[in-house]
Amino acid sequence: MPEGDWSALWLSLKVAGWCLLLGTGPGIGLGWLLARKKFLGKSLLDALLHAPLVLPPVVTGYFLLMVLGRKAVLGQWLEDALGVRLAYNLSGAVIAAGIMGFPLLVRSVRLAIELVDRDLEVAAATLGARPWRVLATVTLPLALPGILTGMTLAFARALGEFGATITFAGNIEGETRTLPLAVFTYMQVPGKESSVFLLACLSLALSLGALFLSEWTVRRAQRRLRGEA
Asked: Could you give all domains of the chain from N- to C-terminal order, each with its CATH number?
């Protein structure tokens, strides 16, 4: 396989891995917040978090440029004050892919926590457990299968992200050209049909592998919970 293809494969895994690493904690926190708390603006927050699921990815990338691009107020301040440039580099690819996959994680976590029996949480609190201990020892373990599902869906979505990435991070070989962008690029070049087919098969294999691993992990977690019960 040509070096450019290996680079695209590695970049896709790197971007998806960073998305999962950076997004899992906030995703669990926001999922718990939406599932267990009532507060002013909850519906607005929920809508904003899930907007990337219904917006065209290119539009999401455009809004990212408007907020974090080099000509945007925040983006320009980050570059001038901190020397941080987010658009058209690897960081931009991670942000774009992460934002597209993040709603899937939050939604899965929220649904999983909503299905946890609140009587068990109340019983733990009655026995003297502090709220953080109830969360760590009761809520999250019982919601683990849903959390794992959300993590896998977010990872797979980041692997397949195209529209927001090409808009916000560009299509720079060796830096932001992930598998979907490489497939798109090769489709424009005569004689690259074999590379397109190979990368498409790689994308399919990675996505199916992630989903298979998720299903296996969830089933193990469910068996463990039933055994403990």
From this structure: 3-224 (1.10.3720.10)
